[in-house]
Specification:
The structure is a homodimer.
Chain A (H helix, E strand, L loop, with lengths): L1 H6 L29 E10 L6 E5 L5 H16 L19 E7 L11 E5 L4 E7 H14 L1 E3 L2 E11 L5 E7 L7 H13 L4 E8 L2 E2 L8 H6 L7 H12 L4 E6 L6 H6 L28 H17 L4 E3 L8 H4 L2 H10 L4 H18 L3 E5 L12 E4 L3 H9 L4 E3 L11 H5 L12 H4 L2 E8 L9 H5 L2 H10 L7 H16 L7 H11 L5 H7 L2 E3 L5 H4 L11 H4 L5 H16 L2 H27 L7 H23 L5 H14 L6 E3 L2 H13 L2
Parallel strand pairs in A: 2-3, 3-5, 8-9, 8-16, 9-11, 12-13, 13-14, 14-15, 15-16
Antiparallel strand pairs in A: 1-7, 4-5, 4-7, 6-7, 9-10, 17-18
Helix pairs in contact in A: 2-3, 4-6, 8-11, 19-23, 22-23, 22-26, 23-24, 24-26, 25-26
């Protein structure tokens, strides 16, 4: 009966997020990452145009433009015009309402001090930090605390003491498979800073492109790219921009494999004569540098010297992954060389190569780092291992006294959910590892590999999920309430937009292009229930190239559709407690999805590029229908017949087979419903 | 009775735009600007992955990357992967389905040949042009012709012969009052090319900022800006980017007024000693260069030489507007100088200044241009006048044999409608002007002054309206069907997004920030019925500064809300013919606006930054209610009483007084309804 009542509601239901929702969860507020210690007090600091910041101590230069930008962001959100528009070392203030004190300017480097204390009382905000970098982190916390009620904008009174759990909290951006303009990189740096990440790892050379200007060897970028690469001026600009936000920039030049693009201009570096072309497909290529020639190392010494000078960070990444050795096998010179040197396997040869490179890198006063594959017996202890193949590799490295960072489990290109990434802890309490070895685990890095992303949708692949990874690496290990993470993720997601991140706005743009109109409601509703297939499965549907249009429905879909997240949460809640409000939300959402097919089919018939989702849309309707039937049984407190249950389960199994490279993301929750009915009495 | 029937429709009505709508209007198709000659034939060229372009003749370099980008845009819209992914001079093709032939490479300069012929038949596309620049224009036409039906994507068969009416079709971007990153400028260059504009006029110095690097006088940008300026590398990059799209870049350095920012670093150039600060407010400042010192011209000679070298275009803009002369009056040295030289007025002194500058510019082999104010008796004939104060100034200049371009009527910062700009013809058939003088009217320029725009909303101020101006300047004067212009503008608007223009997507982003959530429907519906107040009125509401947040409702509102445009059209149609479908569209839209207030008020109560629209939202509901009442009378064929009519008219007059710097944009149409009722029998 209750069900029928709900069913007659005609208006379209919207799961609505309270505006600037200031949650009751005192320990997490709307903060992401959650600080180490938070004490919520009563009262509020009311924000008005008289807000005045005073900066004291010896903070250096970085803090002034950062504080100015903070004022702008506060102004932009509240539309308040503060009497203090910008800050400089010359700024004199009387009666400040916010005092930032830093003991000394920090250096943006490994193990920089990022700690801060933030004390908000009704009349005064105090932000104390050892370095200005701590102050930057504290300002982001302050911005996340900004909220409002009918009286106006305010900060809740709190005492926060905060510092990161891991010193290395990175985002890798692969600018090779697809290239991104400087402006986009800068916006992502701002976004990283907003969730307290501190390393931008630029993957700069690949089979598909050499993306940085070498002045010594200009053919590298001139012939090794389609014209899209960063000039050294632009790289300096990016590094400077990142430094101003407390973020390190670590360059990666993948070698000896993943090097086709180098060889277009410099085939003499390769194990086989070539000629080489810029890669247009994806996967592991055979191209590999020739370790048998002295010339190779002479060239690399000159190149690395040039790049080591350009990038001030202490760490220098040489990749080292997925060198399949085929071209070594086929090169008489390499084979001859191995025989001469008594090198028996390609692994050993790569070890030889790495040793030579390590010498060059060390000579340039840098620390070498590379992917798992370079971690071979006898590797000098000052090399850092980035684990991508599994946490065990990371643990193994740490146990042997190698510094290591985790990327396995943080592959954000694989369309996994924020939940999965969030629960992937580099050092979970359950991990059996000697206390002494823990210090070698430096943190982790989300990796944005770019086979299937363009400037249009890459933000939606990085954000907001990466904020969950940022929290994993900053906050205490005990912070792992997934539901609360998702609650805060929605708020952070909207705040990311003020920095120019297009993870929400470009999706609707892409829908408008696909449909050729601004009537995208039906497509939007469809997409709100699906996600791209996970892992590397998209490549099994078609042979992707660097020219394949990435403008289809699957390219708009994301792994963490807010509607799906909320739906899943409602289902869990409902199955636990049969809670009324969860029940009606479930039904209304299912009705929206069920009836959407009729509308969407009209569009599909008109738009050839939508034909591929024809049956998926019909199936979404079917799935939603099964969900509604399940709810019917629940509400009537009935158990369906075995045959019905078997039939629906089989149907869902069939529907689960992806088409158009898309999964219907709500199926697991519907399966849970069927399961619950099966087990009901 | 018909009315009541309509009223009970519960679902929310959407004015929907047909996808890739391929209109029946044979002479304009979906093309903007409309070509000089179009013959629509029967049949279609069906687009599939076998599409292959062959480029013949002697086209130079520019065409290959442009054609590659065209393929990408076609691929992105259709999701087709063409076998031909990119084009280069080395590309060899067999059996091309599209042949582009250019006689010779063009030079991007004044009077470049932009003509082309495009012939589409079912088996072959032929694009012929004298220069590659014509081919670029033709490719944009081809892209605009791309459409689809249930069978797939296609181009309609047409014969098009096209060339521009005016050689100067520009967009001025003021990068001083607010600064825009390189990437945004580039995207706007792409957008300009898509509607066949050919001049980007960069306004580079102002009271509020000096926005370009001078290597000779680095204090100009270092002290004259907040750090936001274009490096010379970046400027070269912009010029190169524009050249590749057939667009000239004309620099403007405004002088002798509008120069405060110069004087922060170089007070010795000023008429009064200073010190000077970067302007933070807007309007006419007193700062002015000192024409009495030789040093001033020595400095400017060196500076102009540097800039003349950097900008390859033949034209060099010196501004020359709004020099109020106050600082000249107050400078003993200037007064002394005037006495000595026998210069009686400030106008004469500015003429003297201009003459000296002209000499410098001419020495650098450039043509000087400036705003109206430099057009004084005795001005050498090789100076170009840009008219901003009225068409009469333009006409006056042309009659005296001066080349001139029109900007009066194209001030896109003033929130006027596309209709107004569209109907502003530099050379209307009705203008009385000697045949001989016509050739001096070179064209026009839309001017994007940036007092009230930031990177977030500037695209929504430029686009899509500027496309209507582009059409005015390219298409034959007879092309002036406003309704058809608006029809095509909606389609072009969505196509602009593929180039990265954020005129649609950033508006929703701004709404999400204002409300702190993704539940923006009520705010969106409200904004769909309003527009910013027109002209300079916003400055009468508050004293704007360069720091004032531009994130309010008025900053999201635009002058040409599609919903308002469509509503106005329906009202016109209905009042003419009482057409049924127009009637029901009107009523449904009015009902949506009327009932929106209840929902929006909930949000307004929660969000302090929305408080200002409280009464406007209530009044929108009232206005919509009046409209519904009017429709009631029309449908019942009744005439309301005089007192009711008087009352409603008075009410609307009252409501017309703007609040929150917003106009309710549908009032004129409601007034039309009342007027029609008043005159009915």
């Amino acid at each position: 009966m209750r069900l029928n009542l709900v069913r007659i509601i005609f208006t379209c239901f919207c799961f609505s997020l309270p505006a600037f929702s200031f949650c009751q969860n005192a320990t997490t507020l709307n903060l992401m990452p959650v600080p180490e210690k938070v004490i919520v007090k009563t009262g509020a600091f009311r924000l008005d145009s008289s807000f005045v910041i005073s900066i004291t101590g010896d903070p250096g230069k970085r803090i002034y433009p950062y504080a100015t930008r903070m004022l702008q962001r506060m102004g932009n959100r509240t539309t308040l015009l503060f009497s203090q528009a910008y800050l400089s070392p010359q700024t004199k203030t009387e009666k400040p309402t916010c005092i930032m004190h830093c003991d000394s300017p920090g250096k943006v480097e490994m193990n920089m001090d990022e700690s801060y204390q933030l004390n908000i009382s009704s009349g005064l905000i105090l932000l104390n930090s050892a370095t200005d970098i701590g102050a930057l982190r504290g300002m982001e916390t302050l911005l996340q605390l900004l909220t409002c009620d009918s009286l106006g904008y305010y900060f809740p009174c709190v005492d926060i003491s905060d510092k990161p759990r891991f010193p290395w909290r990175g985002l890798l951006i692969d600018v090779c498979r697809h290239f991104y303009p400087v402006d986009m990189i800068k916006k992502n740096i701002d976004a990283m800073a907003s969730v307290k990440m501190n390393v931008l790892h630029l993957h700069l050379s690949e089979d598909q492109g050499f993306r940085i200007e070498s002045k010594k060897f200009p053919k590298l970028q001139q012939l090794g790219s389609n014209g899209s690469y960063y000039s050294q001026e632009q790289i300096k600009d990016i590094i400077q921009y990142a430094d101003e936000r407390g973020i390190r920039v670590v360059p990666e030049f993948d070698m000896p494999g993943h090097t086709s693009a180098w060889f277009v201009g410099h085939p003499e570096l390769a194990s086989l004569p070539g000629p080489y072309e810029i890669g247009t497909t994806f996967g592991v290529f055979d191209a590999s540098m020739d370790p048998s020639k002295k010339y190779t190392f002479k060239f690399l010494a000159a190149f690395i010297k040039e790049m080591a000078k350009l990038f001030p960070d202490e760490y220098f990444h040489i990749g080292g992954d997925e060198n399949n050795g085929k071209n070594w096998d086929n090169s008489p010179a390499v084979q001859e060389f191995m025989k001469k040197k008594g090198i028996k396997t390609n692994d050993e040869l790569q070890k030889y190569f790495n040793k030579k490179i390590l010498k060059i890198i060390t000579a340039n006063k840098k620390k070498m780092m590379g992917w798992d594959e370079i971690f071979t017996p006898g590797l000098p202890k000052n090399v850092v291992i980035q684990s991508w193949r599994g946490k065990d590799y990371m643990k193994g490295a740490a146990l042997q006294g190698y510094q290591t960072i985790l990327s396995s489990g943080y592959y954000i290109d694989l369309s996994k959910t924020a939940r999965e990434h969030y629960l992937n802890d580099p050092l979970p309490d359950t991990m059996k590892i000697e206390e002494d070895a823990k210090k070698y685990i430096l943190g982790g890095e989300a990796t944005m590999w770019s086979e299937l992303t363009t400037w249009e949708n890459v933000d939606s692949r990085i954000w907001p999920r990466t904020a969950a990874i940022a929290e994993r690496l900053w906050s205490p290990s005990a912070v792992k309430d997934v539901e609360d993470m998702y609650r805060r993720l929605e708020i952070v997601s909207i705040q990311l937009e003020e920095l120019g991140i297009t993870h929400i706005s470009n999706r609707e743009m892409m829908m408008r292009r696909l449909t050729g109109s601004d009537s995208i409601e039906a497509l939007k509703t469809f997409i709100s229930a699906v996600s791209p297939v996970k892992g590397y499965r998209r490549h099994s549907f078609r042979k992707y190239t660097t020219s394949t249009p990435l403008t289809r429905t699957v390219d708009i879909a994301v792994p963490d559709e807010p509607a799906v997240v909320r739906f899943d949460q409602c289902v869990d809640k409902y199955l636990q407690s049969k809670e009324d409000s969860a029940g009606s939300q479930i039904i209304l959402q299912l009705m929206t999805w069920k009836k959407n097919n009729a509308e969407l089919q009209k569009l599909i018939k008109k738009i050839p590029a939508l034909n591929e989702i024809d049956s998926v849309s019909a199936d979404l309707s079917l799935v939603a229908g099964i969900g509604i039937d399940c709810m019917d049984y629940f509400e009537k407190d009935q158990k369906p017949g075995e045959s019905w249950l078997t039939q629906q389960t089989a149907l869902l199994k069939e529907i689960k087979k992806p088409r158009a490279e898309i999964d219907i993301a709500i199926i697991p929750s519907i399966e849970k419903m069927l399961e619950a009915l099966k087990e009901s009495k």
